[in-house]
Amino acid sequence: MRALHIASTGMMAQERNVEVTSNNIANMRTTGYKKQRAQFQDLLYQDLRRSGSNTSAQGNQVPVGVQIGSGVRLAATSRIMSQGSLESTGKELDVAIRGEGYFQITLPDGTTAYSRDGSFEIDSEGRLVTADGYEVQPGITFPDDTRDITISNDGEIQVTVGNSTQNTTLGQLTLARFINKAGLEPMGDNLFLETNASGAPQVAVPNADGYGNMLQKYLESANVNSVTEISDLIAAQRAYEMNSRVIQAADDMLSATSQLS
C-alpha cells in the first residue's frame, strides 16, 4: 500500500527536523553559533492521468490530471547567519563582531578557518590564539611585560608595556567576508571553512564599507530563540504523530482487506 511508504518518508523527515532543532537548542549558549533550519522538498509524482492529455479524437483535453506523490525528503539544512546579541564579559581579550565579517584562524595544517567566536587568549609564546590554541590572523605577539590591552572598533591592538605610559601599537585585526556566507562549511569548534558555494574570502579592516566593527570585552551570543525552537519542536512532534497515524490507518485497512472472505 503506497500510503505506508509515503508516511514513512514523512516520519523520517520529521525525525531529521527534530535533530536539527535539538542541535540548535543544545548550542543556545555557544558563542557565535548560527542556528540551522531544515528545508524539505516533495518527491516524484506518479501520473495516473496526465494534465493536458487528449480525451477524444476531437482534441478535448484533461484540464486537471491525477498525480499521486511519493512523500517528502530533507533538501537542505540552511544556516541562519543573523547577528546574535552581544554580551558584556569584562575580559579584555574578548572581542565581538558587530555586523558583517569573520575572524581568520590558522589551523595546525596551515588552512585558514573562519569564526565569529572572539574569546581569545595569549599562549606561552605571547601569540593571540583561540581557546584551542589556534593562531588568530594576522599574527599578533604580545611582549612579556604587557599590562593593558586595548582593541579599538576598527581592530587596532594597542598595549602598555612595562613601566611606560605610552601606548604601543602591536597590529591590526582584519575581517573576512563571503558573498554567500550560508555556504560556509561548519567543522565544529565554532569554525567554518571556505567552500565553492561560499566564494573566496574578501578581507578588509573593520569599519570598511560593508564590514562590521569590533567591540572589546564583549562576545556574540548564539542567534537561537528558545521560544521559537520549542515551538518548532512541538510542530515537528505533531507532524511525526500524524504520519504515524497514517501508517496505523493503512495497516488497519490492509488488515480489514486480509480478513475478507
TrEMBL record:
Keywords: Bacterial flagellum, Cell projection, Cilium, Flagellum. It comes from the Bacteria. Residues 5-34 form the Flagellar basal body rod protein N-terminal domain. Residues 216-260 form the Flagellar basal-body/hook protein C-terminal domain. Its main location: other. Pfam families: Flg_bb_rod, Flg_bbr_C, LlgE_F_G_D1. GO terms for biological process: bacterial-type flagellum-dependent swarming motility. GO terms for cellular component: bacterial-type flagellum basal body, distal rod. Residues 96-159 form the Flagellar hook protein FlgE/F/G-like D1 domain. Coiled coil: none annotated. Belongs to the flagella basal body rod proteins family. The basal body constitutes a major portion of the flagellar organelle and consists of four rings (L,P,S, and M) mounted on a central rod. The rod consists of about 26 subunits of FlgG in the distal portion, and FlgB, FlgC and FlgF are thought to build up the proximal portion of the rod with about 6 subunits each. This is Flagellar basal-body rod protein FlgG. It comes from Cohaesibacter marisflavi.
